Amino acid sequence: MNIIEINNLTFRYKTKFIYDNFSLNIKRGTWVTIAGPNGAGKTTLVKLLAGLVKSYCDIKIFGKPLNKKNIYDVRKEVGFVFDNPDNFFACETVEDELAFSLENMAVFPSTIKKKIKEISSLLNLDDILKENPYDLSGGQKQKVLLGCALMLEPRILVLDEALMMIDINQRDELLRILKEYNKKKRVTIVSFTHDLKEAIYSDRLVVLNDGKIIIDGPFPNVFDEERVMRKIGLEVPFEVELSQKLRLYKLVDKINLNLEGLVDELWK
Amino acid sequence: MEVIFKDVSFSYNKGMINEKKALKNINIVLQSNLIHGIIGPIGSGKTTMLELMNGVTKPDSGEIIVGEYELKNKLKKSEFNKFRYEVGFVYQFPEKQFFCSTVAEEVAFSSKVFDSKNKNIKVKVKKALKMVGLDESYLKRSPFSLNSGEKRRVAIASVLISNPKLLIMDEPTIGLDNNSKKRLMKLLINLKKQYMKTIIIVTHDVDMLYEITDDVVVLNEGEVANFGTKIDVFSNVDLLNKNNAPVPSVVRMCKMIYDKKGIDLGYIKNTNELVRSIVGCFDRNKEGD
């Protein structure tokens, strides 16, 4: 079942067409990464899904058209995590920030407390709960923002370059946590990024360029199109680049997303 | 422009119940005309260190010397203007430094304010934009309407226009696609080699750093865990792991081959060199057979 349906989307800023007859369907419970170089139309698509810019097209979320009448109901079940956390913080402590959206929905304080405990332990935020979000580092801020989105138990989680300030080690850990969350809760994740390293836990990769889908496929086979990705300015994961180069020398047969597996295959 | 930290400590919310030590007794000398990278896990004090050398934040104790400026005492206005002009800072979030309505005004700002001989500003603006790969069509656009990669490039151009001796950059590659990143790396190497600039970069992107940096500082919990040339620092993978610091991909692969197969590939510069070394191993094996 498609949870997000975009049919024949046309959108332009003044005279510049960003999307012309663009269609994309996303199935429930999947993790789809939408990648593209700067200017490919990623942020515009996020804004369209969030209803932040008007579209005169057919975008359906949970089968409901995204219009004035439905937008409030839809937004309650879609969590957005944007790239600049400073634009979103409103409270003096991380704990208050996590509670903010549920408080506004008049949820019982005891339920909010329980939920904060669950999310802070999931994302490892326990040590910073009493801190001012503005005093945190960029990566910590992004984790808090992700926590705020998960507090609402969204059915769809939209990440717009949401992990780019988190260091590699922590990002891998966070991606694993999100993968478990995606499987366990059947949450649909739509992640927008220009960094394909963030895509390694996705089920499907869609590559955009100039408002058009140029690659769409499952992992890791989609990396057979590695050359096209690099040509448009995307950085493929190191493991993919190395596997492909070693394939040219017939030292390995397939793309290996794990370095240990790659070494084993080389010296098998 | 040399940067010296002498026993520098700094805490956020000093004297309050939620006081948090960000930097503890930092002693370090970052030499002129080199690219220095600062790495470490999130919250290790990287950005705080940059803000201290930018003169915006004052240390609780210790001394910071940037070139001829001692940042311990408040600088005189004329001296401070000169310092601002000579030290360029690119923030982690480019929006933080934007306040003009067009890209042209934004890029021209520092040159107009701090440079008394601000001649040929229009030419300088175009040149700075060209250096970061943006053409003249951007001049009249609002910097706030740009995508994240373009914002970052405008932020860098608005710093480059003043031709700073010291360039401080906080996560400069965030939001940049691969082509823009490669262009920035080339620009930084060129600024160092041709214009003798000192560049200090805080980044999580160790693969980028591995290609361009000379020295690396590893920070963890506000302390210097390691400092040295990139070969020294990145060859000590165990110490990087111990301090939760990121390890460059090429180095990770070399370490994996060493740990699993006992083969030491030595210092490898990049992926192509790594592939050649691996292929070489198999060629030698064949010859041996």
Number of domains of chain A: 2
Per CATH, the class of the largest domain in chain A reads: Alpha Beta
Helix/strand class of chain B:
alpha/beta
| Helical stretch tally of chain A | 9
CATH H-level superfamily title of the largest domain in chain B? P-loop containing nucleotide triphosphate hydrolases
Q: Which sequence of strands runs across the widest sheet of chain A?
A: 6-7-8-3-9-10
CATH topology of the largest domain in chain A: Rossmann fold
**In one word, what is the shape of chain B?**
globular
What's the architecture of the largest domain in chain A in CATH terms? 3-Layer(aba) Sandwich
Quickly name the level 1 CATH class of the largest domain in chain B.
Alpha Beta
Largest sheet of chain A: 6 strands, mixed
Strand order of the largest sheet of chain B: 6-7-8-3-9-10
Oligomer: heterodimer
Helix content of chain B: 40-55%
**What is the residue-averaged pLDDT of chain A?**
87
Largest sheet of chain B: 6 strands, mixed
Shape category of chain A: globular
How would you describe this structure to a colleague?
The complex is a heterodimer of chains A (268) and B (289). In chain A, helix 3 (94-104) packs across helix 4, helix 3 (94-104) packs parallel to helix 5 (138-151) and helix 4 (109-123) packs across helix 5. The mean pLDDT of chain A is 87. Chain A contains nine helices and ten strands. In chain A, strands 6-7-8-3-9-10 form a six-stranded mixed sheet, sandwiched between helices. A four-stranded antiparallel sheet of chain A has the order 2-1-4-5, covered by helices on one side. Chain A has helices spanning 42-50, 71-76, 94-104, 109-123, 138-151, 168-185, 226-231, 238-248, 259-266; strands at 2-13, 16-27, 31-35, 58-61, 64-65, 78-81, 156-160, 188-193, 204-209, 212-218. Chain A folds into two domains: 2-231, P-loop containing nucleotide triphosphate hydrolases (Rossmann fold), CATH 3.40.50; 237-268, no CATH class. Helices cover 42% and strands 21% of the residues of chain B. Chain B has eleven helices and ten strands. Chain B has helices at residues 46-53, 77-86, 103-114, 121-131, 148-160, 178-195, 206-212, 230-235, 237-242, 249-261, 271-288; strands spanning 3-12, 20-30, 35-39, 61-66, 69-70, 87-90, 166-170, 198-202, 215-220, 223-229. In chain B, the strands form two sheets. A six-stranded mixed sheet of chain B has the order 6-7-8-3-9-10, with helices on both faces. At the A-B interface, helix 5, helix 6, helix 8 and helix 9 of A face helix 5, helix 6, helix 10 and helix 11 of B.
